[in-house]
Write a structure and sequence with these properties.
The complex is a heterodimer of chains A (265) and B (305). With 265 residues, chain A is mainly alpha-helical. In chain A, helix 3 packs antiparallel against helix 4, helix 3 packs parallel to helix 6 and helix 10 crosses helix 11. Chain A is globular. The N terminus of chain A is likely disordered. In chain B, strand 1 and strand 2 form a beta hairpin. The longest helix of chain B has 19 residues. The radius of gyration of chain B is 23 Å and the shape is globular. The model of chain B has no long low-confidence stretch (mean pLDDT 87). Classes of the chains: A mainly alpha (265), B alpha/beta (305). The interface between A and B is medium-sized, with 32 and 29 residues.
Chain lengths: 265, 305
């Protein structure tokens, strides 16, 4: 009871002269603008959709015609995870780095934008982009790769993608607070591509050298891959453990990034 | 009129240091309702730091910054201000109307889209993507964004940089319309004629301190100089040696003289050069005052060193 009344009184005083509906409207407007501006930006949308779809087409569909259904499903998960990483890393990291450099973040801090709307807008944008990537891959897998999965499995994979983008948003945000301006895309690629390889998204885990297999659990993408495999009933491992580790990654990245953002702007 | 309740923004003894560098060394600044205050000063004078303190972007190391009697970092205080920053790169793929709708959504009682657009003269640009606009058009859009929330106080940081004369005049008119509505404006600018044309009060800053503050006329009176220009063959160095001549320099065929005693210098000038022509005599503008104030600052520092 106490907690509830404290929370409501805090939110009322927080809104000041502004009604709850208008504050909510500001969050919505921010999210809408963030989605619009990136969906209209081919420099952002093309790499995010083309990388995973072309890779999946080549290595997942064309080169695996003869392989069994399990391989096809495994690859759908691998490239799904690969595709979900980039809206998080790039959508958050590059845009934050550029907007810190270009003064947009300063401008928005000077404006009465509701706190958190900026990050929430970017987060929802990344989740939407992740959903698009997963839907594209599902369509390709079912239509061209003749992957057979149930509607429930497809829905779960979509859910894994939309929520799985969050640890990468947090990682991208951390990089965006460390690096300003044009240097960010390079650094993010240095994280994105090796991490994808090392967590078995391009080459199945058991074909990697033993040492790399052993360090794979340090990468968040490895855990997301495991969760994705569970979603398609390929694996029945400790799914909650992987989810907990992903949440842990997200919280740690987010805390460090928020701290830096508050200190240095 | 009660002077204290009319204060909309205030810096009192504000100090800001960046490591060894003191960006602001105790600045006092008061802005009243319905007033247009111009803040002038060379680069590094502390203008931007003062504005950043009032916007809550940075915190003072000493002293206080207040917006409407509150901490500028409180969102309630910032809901009453509009901002136009010099270097904000806005999203290029959003249309002007979308940007206006977004920024207006942050405020409790914003202007309608049409009203903001009309005030800033961007009504014909609403459907255009921001990135496709010219520099001057982008500045006008930024101005529209600054006033779209129906603010009581607007910060304009170098608003007319990159504008042609016509566009600048239009923006000046829009600023005057804002002030006539009772809105206060803080304007930083490099264009002294802008401050001269618009500001009721001018603050000149240098090296993190307020060098001078007052109306444009009061500022001018601080430096009682008159400018004399004429076509003459007289040696500038010689004229500079005359009593009561503050400065004399040559610009092509013309001679430029600054003096606090124009009548006597003119008499001597006409006597010395019978062929003198195209004579102009003008009271010192803000530019001269500004040069004088900031030069005193630098010579004082050289003496101290």
């Amino acid at each position: 009871m106490n907690a509830v009344s404290i929370a409501t009184s805090a939110s009322v005083s927080h809104a000041g002269g502004m009604g709850f509906r208008r504050v909510l409207g500001a969050y919505l407007a921010e999210t809408r603008s963030e989605c619009l501006r990136y969906m209209r930006n081919p420099g952002f949308m093309l790499p995010i959709t083309l990388f995973p779809t072309v890779f999946y087409l080549l290595f997942g569909i064309v080169m695996n015609k003869a392989a069994g259904m399990d391989v096809a499903r495994y690859l759908l998960v691998s490239y799904g995870v690969f595709g979900v990483m980039s809206p998080g890393l790039f959508g958050f990291g590059v845009s934050l780095a550029l907007e810190r450099d270009g003064g947009l973040l300063t401008y928005k801090r000077a404006l009465p934008m509701p706190p958190g709307a900026y990050l929430l807008g970017k987060m929802l944008m990344a989740m939407l982009a992740a959903a698009m990537v997963i839907l594209l891959l599902l369509a390709m897998g079912i239509g061209m790769g003749h992957v057979t999965i149930t509607a429930r499995q497809a829905g779960l994979l979509l859910l894994v993608g939309v929520l799985g983008v969050l640890p990468f948003c947090a990682l991208g945000m951390l990089v965006g607070t460390l690096i300003k301006g044009q240097g960010a895309p390079g650094v993010l690629n240095l994280i994105y591509l090796p991490m994808s390889l090392l967590s078995g998204l391009w080459v199945p885990m058991n074909e990697l050298p033993k040492a790399l297999q052993q360090i794979a659990p340090v990468w968040p993408s490895y855990h997301l891959h495991e969760v994705g495999l569970v979603a398609l009933d390929m694996d029945h491992g400790h799914v909650m453990e992987h989810v907990a580790i992903l949440i842990g990654f997200t919280v740690v990245f987010l805390l460090i990034a928020a701290r830096r953002l508050r200190r240095y702007g | 009129m009660n002077a204290t309740s009319d204060v909309v923004a205030r810096l009192s003894g504000a100090v800001k240091r960046y490591g060894q560098l003191t960006a602001l060394g105790g600045v006092d600044l008061v802005l009243r309702r319905g007033e247009l205050l111009a803040v002038l000063g060379p680069n590094g004078a502390g203008k931007s730091t003062s504005i950043s303190l009032l916007l809550g972007l940075i915190r003072p190391d000493g002293g206080r910054a207040e917006l409407f009697g509150r901490d500028p970092q409180e969102i309630e205080a910032r809901r009453r201000i509009g901002v136009m920053l010099q270097s904000a790169m806005l999203p290029t793929t959003l249309r002007v109307g979308e940007l206006l709708r977004l920024i207006a959504s942050y405020y409790p009682d914003p202007r309608s889209l049409e009203e903001s657009a009309a005030l800033a003269g961007v009504g014909d640009l609403l459907q255009r993507p921001y990135g496709k606009l010219s520099g001057g058009q982008q500045r006008r859009v930024q101005f529209a964004l600054a006033l779209c929330g129906r603010p009581e106080l607007v910060f304009l940081d170098e608003p007319t940089v990159g504008m042609d004369i016509d566009a600048r005049r239009k923006l000046w008119d829009a600023m005057c319309a804002l002030v006539a509505e009772g809105c206060s404006v803080v304007l930083t600018t490099h264009y002294l004629e802008e401050a001269e044309a618009l500001a009721q009060r001018v603050v000149v800053m240098g090296k993190g301190r307020v060098l001078s503050e007052g109306s444009v006329d009061a500022l001018r009176a601080q430096v009682p100089l008159t400018r004399i220009r004429c076509v003459s063959d007289l040696d500038a160095a010689m004229v500079a040696g005359w009593p009561q001549v503050a400065s004399a320099e040559r610009e092509g065929t013309r001679l430029r003289i600054g003096t606090p005693d124009a009548e006597n210098v003119l008499r001597r000038l006409l006597y010395a050069d019978a062929a003198l022509s195209e004579l102009e005599v003008q009271r010192a503008g803000l530019a001269d005052v500004f040069t004088e104030l900031t030069r005193e600052e630098s010579t004082l520092n050289q003496e101290a060193a």
